[in-house]
Write a structure and sequence with these properties.
Two copies of one chain form a homodimer. Chain A has a six-stranded parallel β-sheet, sandwiched between helices. The termini of chain A are far apart. Chain A is elongated. Chain A is an alpha/beta fold. Chain A is built from twelve helices and twelve strands. In chain A, α4 runs parallel beside α12, α5 packs parallel to α6 and α7 packs parallel to α8. In chain A, α8 links the parallel β6 and β7. At the A-B interface, α3, α4, β2, α5 and α6 of A face α3, α4, β2, α5 and α6 of B. The structure holds a DNA duplex (30 and 30 nucleotides).
DNA sequence: GCCATTCATGTTAGCGATATCATTACCATG
DNA sequence: CATGGTAATGATATCGCTAACATGAATGGC
């Protein structure tokens, strides 16, 4: 017991004993076994998180935010990515719950029925991120993808653009891409602009290369397009490169805007107008909320919603 | 015991019992507790991995390779990133070993003494990646960063370039960046070329923005530079943008090459010459080796080395 | 009809930590 | 000196599972 106490930094161990313990630990190469500890104490020290992809820098920023915040409390992250598939998410939730995480962070608000049931039965706090779910499971840290895209369209409309195109993925899986497209359409309608030209291209995440190809398609179908909005900065960059290869001047011949405020949008030439969505902050806040609920189980913060900022960043490409 | 067997897909459970069990599990919402299971069976189902950063797509590709390969075997990844710090690595190794992983994958060959000691005492297979350590702990899946960079210099030299510059980070922490710079220098010396112009800029990972600034420094210090090689494609892209802002023609006025074959190098305009290093494959192979050793503990593959391919990809920027 | 064999299920004893309660040693106080 | 209080340490049971062995039931071969 004194060893256990010493390793937990309890002040109920005398200095002498403490030193003897650490000396012995060092000599023996003893390493505490946390699975035994958590079996006994009912606290695993795990938090689970599932993101669509870790290659896409937006979500990996969120993962960084989560990790950084958890680290302060000594919690460990169990991270999985599901390639935008709710079915893979379901089996990952199942696998992770077997590790008895003390909380779980999900991306988006769309989950299979079984996923929802498992999460409700688990009796741990859940945070859904990156979205405003119609039927939240528990807590939410996110923003409206539709509103964000709509804001971008409206901002550009005030600059005089009228003929808009939208480049996104085939919208089966990427629910956030879906909502951005819906926000695009509704803003167009609201402003009474000419019908938006929508190109759906490939499975998420839409790559630079796919953005380039989609831009080719926009230019050949609707050569008079004034501005092309892309589902992410990566595809926007691909689109930009395609225009440059064709000798088009940006934004004079055609303007381009992206989404997500990736590093590349701020660094390429011309710089790309984008929507900043505080990815790192989403992760940090989600972890923060989880930790709060874990540490104060007496008043759980069920159904609380944190709305994160969205902000259009206008640059030279529009 | 029958429940335990049924959940492990043992064929020692009759169809009837199996169905009864799953029905009850469904009704009760029972979820297996793996920490209890691993305490008893001495198998946790964890593999630990530590990378320098998860924002950098090269390392997140490696993490993807690891995850994809582990998933086939039902192993779960415990992932951490250390911001290129061997000290943070040390405390992460300590934290992870408390979870009793069945194997561990590290990036690079440089670790603190205590890290090495802990790993040796842990009695689990270790794979070092992305490098050829002078003193390998156990198994290695990697390549020589110096050779790769040297190969790039030599390839460019055959095209007639003679005045080389190198853009990298201040080389305290990023050991792989270090080695690339050394490979650059040694190739220059070997070929009898004019002394390389080295700009060290910022802490790793060198961003696009830093690449741009470093390029500015190259151009003002040595305006007659013929080719600038960058420690990564991200900084190469930043450098490229800086040149374009200054109205320089690439590669006529100055050529640019990067390292890592990021998506952006293949997609920007002009496309950037780079060195491909099979990041995903490194992850896949490292996990594969670990799994082999875990599954065949009778003949451990200590000190085995897998050399991954490096390949210069010449594009329009040189 | 008996024993050997196979298949399915049950029993028991831990795995290595911590929660909880018990004990001891020591000191201060009236 | 007895009493009570505090600080440090110890003893025991338990967390939920699985390894290992034991048992029972069904089958088949001679």
């Amino acid at each position: 017991m004194s060893v256990s106490r010493a390793l937990k930094n309890s002040d109920l161990v005398s200095q002498v004993t403490r030193e003897r313990i650490f000396k012995a630990i060092d000599e023996l190469g003893y390493v505490l076994d946390l699975s035994a500890g958590s079996l006994s104490s009912k606290r695993t020290g795990f938090v689970a998180a599932i993101v669509p992809s870790i290659n896409n820098s937006n979500f990996s920023d969120t993962a960084r935010g989560i990790t950084d915040e958890l680290e302060k409390t000594g919690l460990q992250l169990l991270l999985a990515y599901n390639d935008y598939s709710a079915e893979r998410e379901e089996s990952q939730i199942e696998a992770m719950l077997r590790r008895r995480p003390e909380g779980i962070i999900l991306t988006g608000g769309i989950h299979t029925d079984r996923s929802r049931r498992m999460l409700e039965n688990a009796g741990i706090p859940v945070v859904e991120t990156w979205d405003l779910p119609a039927k939240p499971i528990d807590q939410v840290v996110g923003f409206s993808n539709a509103d964000a895209m709509s804001l971008l369209v409206k901002t550009l409309a005030t600059k005089g653009y009228r003929k808009f195109a939208y480049i996104g993925g085939t919208t089966e899986r990427d629910t956030r891409g879906n909502q951005r497209r819906a926000g695009f359409q509704s803003a167009i309608a609201e402003l009474g602009l000419p019908e938006g030209r929508v190109v759906s291209f490939g499975v998420p995440p839409i790559s630079m290369e796919q953005g380039a190809q989609a831009m080719g398609s926009v230019l050949s179908q609707w050569p008079d397009t004034e501005v092309a909005i892309c589902v992410s900065d990566l595809s926007a960059f691909g689109a930009l490169m395609e225009c440059q290869r064709r000798g088009l001047k940006i934004p004079k011949d055609i303007a381009i805007a992206g989404f997500g405020n990736y590093e590349i949008a701020a660094c390429c030439h011309p710089r790309i107008t984008s929507v900043d969505i505080e990815c790192y902050e989403i992760g940090r806040l989600a972890a923060r909320k989880l930790i709060n609920t874990i540490q104060n189980p007496e008043h759980p913060s069920r159904n609380e919603l944190v709305l994160t900022n969205i902000r259009v960043i206008e640059r030279e490409s529009t």
